[in-house]
Design brief:
about 55% helix, Cytochrome p450-Terp, domain 2, 2 domains, mainly alpha, 14 helices, three-stranded antiparallel β-sheet, binds coenzyme A, about 350 residues, Citrate Synthase, domain 1
Length: about 350
């Protein structure tokens, strides 16, 4: 039996037409188009671009799912926002319309902040969710969701595909993907990025702070990637989005300048710490700054990520459903065998 690396690095598990994550050149290509050329699309346009099935009216879907989600809201108490999204998805009436799942995540995110908010079916998805959630700068949220909507066979997408391959259905596949996204090595990093920047702002010597952290065997959040051996191209898209917003906010402009300085310092310290391994800025670093500026709390960041990534998860679920083959690898047993004497 062929045994592969425990993190499945370098293992290709499917043929896909959805996206190319080019880790050597630092390119992200979605259905033949560079990510940076998709920046003007609306969320609905990106869904139509990524999916092989039509997207039905997302505004009507928001209106349809809102009452059921409002009834579930008392259950959100004590849950992390990402756990609330999972619960909301699990308890919604079943549907064959994928627009309902997309709408449900956005509306659940907004209702948790403003339980009485009502969807406007005429509005576009991002503006409506931003309005319901009481956020500033909807275009920042749109840029963010377009940027993170799809990214190859990452852990949550792989999870979604495995579950879809069992024919458990879209709800189960999305719910499992939400679970995978939650971890700090995947979608849970941007909150800790802000904690890190806060600590650095107080540190008398930031370089020393980085060195000590690494000496304790800890990781710097927002750096390193399984696939990219150069800077994650999404980091630049999001840095530029922060820069645009910073034109309207001197507070953000100052925070951005500080983050840029810390990025340079961190990558230099990481290069000295691991000379054999390129550890560059990943998507989560500027995500943290952008989501904070838009008005999200740090505990919400992973849930906000999920509301954008749902487009990619569904694109892969559709592709997997078409493929139709159960994903079922093997494990090499290295434990004891019973005594056969
Ligand atoms: N800070 C410090 N060291 C890091 C690091 C980081 N951010 N990322 C990787 N390394 C180190 C590892 O500790 C490992 O060292 P070792 O060989 O002495 O054990 C080495 O670099 C190789 O890393 P590896 O664990 O093989 O990388 P991976 O492909 O499994 O990890 C991540 C990818 C993203 C999980 C990892 O870079 C990480 O934990 N980053 C921080 C969390 C984060 O930003 N997550 C968001 C990802 S988009």
């Amino acid at each position: 039996m062929q045994v592969v690396a425990s993190g499945l690095e370098g293992v290709c598990v499917a043929d896909s037409r959805i996206s190319l994550v080019d880790g050597q050149a630092g390119r992200l290509i979605l259905r033949g188009v560079h990510l940076h050329d998709l920046g003007d699309k609306s969320f609905e346009e990106l869904a139509r671009f990524l999916w092989e099935v039509p997207l039905e009216n997302l505004g009507e879907a928001r209106l349809r799912v809102a009452p059921a989600l409002r009834e579930l809201l008392p259950l959100a108490h004590g849950l992390a926002p990402i756990e609330w999204l999972r619960l909301a998805l699990d308890r919604l009436p079943d549907t064959k319309n994928p627009a309902d799942w997309v709408a449900a995540l956005g509306v659940a995110l907004a209702l948790r902040r403003h339980p009485a908010a009502e969807p406007d079916p005429q509005a576009d998805h991002v503006s409506d969710v931003a309005r319901m959630a009481g956020l500033k700068w909807p275009d920042g949220l749109r840029r963010y969701w377009i940027c993170v909507a799809e990214h190859g066979m990452n852990a949550s997408t792989f999870t979604a595909r495995v579950v879809a391959s069992t024919r458990a259905g879209q709800r189960a596949a999305l719910s499992a993907a939400l679970g995978a996204l939650q971890g700090p090595l995947h979608g849970g990093a941007p909150g800790p990025v802000l904690d890190m920047l806060d600590e650095l702002q107080q540190a008398p010597d930031p370089e020393d702070w980085f060195r000590h952290k690494l000496a304790r065997g800890e990781r710097l959040m927002g750096f390193g990637h399984r696939i990219y051996r150069v800077r994650d191209p999404r980091a630049e898209v999001l840095r530029v989005a922060c820069q645009k917003l910073a034109e309207q906010s001197s507070e953000l402009a100052e925070r951005l300048r500080f983050a840029e300085r810390m990025e340079k310092l961190a990558t230099a310290v990481l290069a000295a710490h691991k000379p054999g391994r390129v550890l560059q800025t990943n998507v989560e670093y500027y995500t943290a700054l952008l989501l904070e500026a838009i008005g999200f709390e740090r505990e919400e960041f992973t849930a906000v990520f999920a509301c954008g990534r749902v487009l990619g998860w569904l694109a892969h679920i559709f592709e997997q459903e078409k493929e139709g083959r159960l994903i079922r690898p093997e494990v090499r047993y290295v434990g004891p065998l019973p005594d056969e004497r």
